[in-house]
Amino acid sequence: MFVISQKANIVIVGGGIFGCAIAYYYTRNYPGKKVLVLERNEICNAATSRAAALMTIVRSKKSYIPLSLETYQAVVQMEKQLGESLDMRMSGMMHLAASDARVEDLNVLLEIADQFRQPYEYLSSERAHSMSPWLKADEAMRIVFFPGEAYCDPYLLGTFFSRCARQQGAEILQSCAVKELIYRAGAVYGVKTSQGTIEADIVIDAAGAWANVLSMQTGTAIPMAPVRSQYWITEKADIFPVDGPMVLLPDAQAYARPEGGALLFGVREHQSLYASPDKLPDDISNFMFSDDKGMSDLAENGDRLARFFPHFYDTGIKYYMAGFSGYTPDGQLVMGKVPGVENFLLASGCCGAGIAVSGGVGLALAELASGNPSTFDLSDFDVSRFGKIDPFSTSWLERCAMSRSKKLSG
User: Fold this and answer.
1) Which CATH class is domain 89-149+226-325?
2) Considering only CA atoms, which of 356, 397, 383 is closest in space to residue 54?
């Protein structure tokens, strides 16, 4: 049994990439404080390890971009601290637009790229095909390549955050389940866990898909829901170069990236699977996300994908991966202070972008937990922006799931 301190400055509930990133930044920037990360299973073993981990920088939601840029900086700093390489693949991101609407969207992205000084270049269909031989790009009306973007091993990035945080003094306790907040008179004073009670100056809810179960103990409804993200990995083939770029196909609502000589790709199904946070098992390692490994969803989207991936129907599928991401109706994060509840912060609603924005989320929450204003503008992420909601109701869950079903980006 762990010997748990009875008093901490900061308690972070959830040992996913958000929780570990917060611990990293807090211990780095505010040394000498007692920081505890509490994880009921193993760190980075739920949504984090199941992510496709596209480290997208240039997005239509500009509020995400500074957060993602911070993640790239954090990788460099942690590699130096640990003396190891994260082996982040700087493959670049290729965007194909094959309709007037998507060309218009891409033009907006280029304006955003200029605003944030992110490089890009136009590609011909022949050049795009030479970079990604699996790709049929002759129907594209515009193709743009962003060379500064990457993908990574999400579990490795999460453990880099945790290892650096430990070196800096954080305690990360696994197999320690948080059962209850210590909440009275409009303030949170700690947590009750499977290993005992811990008093804290600040408690941060970074519990991922389960975050609402905890926050609702204070009457705070987080405006997000657990929605399934899924992807597939093909058999290896010569048409899938190891050093190929990531590819976004918004006209097919699909994305793809290299995976060791194979292709990892995802599509958005018409009706995304969702779950109520209070009905999820404590451990999703054996959760049945799809009884047919998503093959019915692939069939639903196959023709749209085959338009750009002609070998789709004769390429073998070797692996299927699924997990729950926290989706919000507007595709924005939920993080920051909780109105009307003292000593309680949130880091939630990743909307499938959690790996990319993890550094910014970690820094922002560490700053808020220290009592300082955030470096970033967090106004788009306010917990109360949808008014009063019931995060367990079917209508709310369906509304959040629709956000993923309509998603065009990676």
Assistant:
1) alpha beta
2) 356
